[in-house]
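Sharing a chain and its predicted structure for anyone who wants a worked example. Both blocks are below, sequence first, tokens second.
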Amino acid sequence: MNFNDFCTTMFDLLEREPIIVSENTVLRDDLDVDSLQMVNLATSLADHYLIPFSLFIEKADKIGTVGGLFEIVKEGATYEVIQ
């Protein structure tokens, strides 16, 4: 998965037309993603990429930007649940 593929998925999950964004694009200010939409997006990304939602909670400081979300998802791709 690359950044552009991630962005396509993110806009699909937000049900919005894709626009050009960078890793520094701020979800709240630049894309008008409110708190509820952010929670829904994080949940949807966790489901889509089959990663634990708890990873988004652990990395909450990164959620503010598109690049931060991308980092969480990339980390989740290598995340192993120990049972």
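Comments welcome. The CA atoms of residues 2 and 70 lie 9 Å apart.
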